[in-house]
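Quick review question:
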């Protein structure tokens, strides 16, 4: 009789430990899921998600356009790119996007391209010590001649330093513009290529198939 009672007690303890183990596994899985949802973006651009970024009401207006090229298709040197050029030239029509304090023009471009599934490729420019946007929407520098490429403007002005160095402020307007000849742009820096904010740094980029930047990396 005593042995039987001992056996029953052991079975109860085993069942109790089994229940505790199952609960522990569920708790661990739940915690892991929460961590993955709130984890930081690998590129440091918008890891907390749109809700977190817009919590303080900070927005900028973003536009990506190649209208200059769409109106001068005869300047296209790579016919394989023609299919990617929108008829109206708007790769991303002006749109208000959230941003977090301290983010740069490049950070917002990278995150927006990822969210909108817009191809984007960039690399690190050792001269400007900034990201260099090589291509957006499958349209790259020199696809429309040796002076073609991406430049950016903030509130209608073209900064003279790289896009990953320009920290944005609430309410600003950012335009990424594909130009067929950067020397025709008002205020374009002397020398240089289109790429990272100047005529000679057309953009500043990382690769993104709907992603965005990281030294020659694909963003999707």
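Suggested answer, residue by residue:
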């Amino acid at each position: 009789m005593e042995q039987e009672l001992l056996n029953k007690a052991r079975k109860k303890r085993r069942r109790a430990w089994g229940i505790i183990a199952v609960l522990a596994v569920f708790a661990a899985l739940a915690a892991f899921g929460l961590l993955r949802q709130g984890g930081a973006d690998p590129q440091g651009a918008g890891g907390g998600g749109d809700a977190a970024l817009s919590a303080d009401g900070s927005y900028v207006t973003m536009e990506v356009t190649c209208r200059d090229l769409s109106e001068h298709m005869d300047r296209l040197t790579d016919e394989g790119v023609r299919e990617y050029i929108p008829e109206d030239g708007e790769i991303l029509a002006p749109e208000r996007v959230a941003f977090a304090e301290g983010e740069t023009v490049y950070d917002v471009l990278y995150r927006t391209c990822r969210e909108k599934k817009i191809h984007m490729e960039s690399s690190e420019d050792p001269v400007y010590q900034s990201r260099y946007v090589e291509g957006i929407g499958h349209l790259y520098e020199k696809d429309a001649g040796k002076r073609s490429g991406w430049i950016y403007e903030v509130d209608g002005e073209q900064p003279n330093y790289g896009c990953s160095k320009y920290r944005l402020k609430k309410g600003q307007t950012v335009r990424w513009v594909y130009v067929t000849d950067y020397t025709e742009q008002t205020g374009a820096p002397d020398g240089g290529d289109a790429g990272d904010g100047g005529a000679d740094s057309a953009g500043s980029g990382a690769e993104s198939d709907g992603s965005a930047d990281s030294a020659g990396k694909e963003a999707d």
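Why it works: The chain has two domains: 1-38, 49-209. DSSP finds four helices and eight strands in the chain.
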